[in-house]
Amino acid sequence: MTDTAHAPINLDAILLPLLAETKVNAIRQLVDAIGGNPAVRDAEALYEAILVREEEAPTALGMRVAMPHARTRAVTELVIVGGRLEKPMPWGGSQENVRFIFLLGVPPLAIEQYLHAMKTFAHAFKRTDVLKRLDKVKTTGEFEQTLRDAVHSL
Fold first, then answer.
1. What digits encode the pLDDT tens for the residues 95-125?
2. What are the φ/ψ torsions at residue 116 (nearest 5 degrees)?
3. Minimal CA–CA distance to 23: which of 95, 75, 97, 77?
4. Are 143 and 84 in contact (CB under 8 A)?
5. Phi then psi dihedrals of residue 113, to 5 deg
6. Strands 69-71 and 79-89
7. Does a cis peptide bond (omega within 30 degrees of 0) precede residue 107?
8. Which pTM does this prediction carry?
9. Is 142 helix (H, G, I), strand (E, B) or coil?
10. What does the alpha-carbon distance between residue 68 and residue 86 come to, in Å, rounded to a whole number?
11. Within 13 Å of residue 8, how many CA atoms lie on the same side as its CB?
12. CA 150 from chain center: how many Å?
């Protein structure tokens, strides 16, 4: 039996670069990138749930990172999509502009997986070398490998 709460973190899609000029547009593009994923039952419901969650409390973590997320029946399993903005933008709740966005769609009962993913990302992003490397990568493969290496070294 696999311990899903401590399984490796995988991105279902990566947008590099993410060409958005507003928070709402960035969220739309990220959701659209995973809309065809079999774990996404209803991409529009996921999009709406994330916007509602952002209204309740913006998800900027600082360190130029935002993690918009929502627990919703619109997904059947945890889905994660990441992107690096072409131009950093303001994101409510942070004094810094955001450059990296990691969007999570979380089924209502996947609380342990969600907490594991959030904790793993937060620890990885506290290391400034990780964000510097993510800033410089050219391909989605390099982006994903940089994240994998950062998470593996925790």
1. 789 999 999 999 999 999 999 999 999 888 8
2. -60, -45
3. 97
4. yes
5. -60, -45
6. unpaired
7. no
8. 0.92
9. helix
10. 18
11. 12
12. 15
Amino acid at 114: Y
Q: What are phi and psi of 135, to 5 degrees?
A: -65, -30
Q: Give the integer Cα–Cα distance in Å for 100 and 117.
A: 16
Residues 6+ apart with CB under 8 A from 116: 5, 6, 7, 9
Query: What is the C-alpha separation between 40 and 80, in angstroms, rounded?
Result: 11
pLDDT tens by residue, 1-25: 344 444 567 899 999 999 999 999 9
* Token output for 16: 């590099």
Which residues, including other chains, have CB under 8 Å from residue 63's CB and lie 6 or more apart? 96, 125, 126, 128, 131
What is the chain's length? 154
Which tokens hold the place of 153? 């070294």
Torsion of CA 86, 40, 66, 58, to 10 degrees: 130
Tokens for 54, please give them.
């952002």
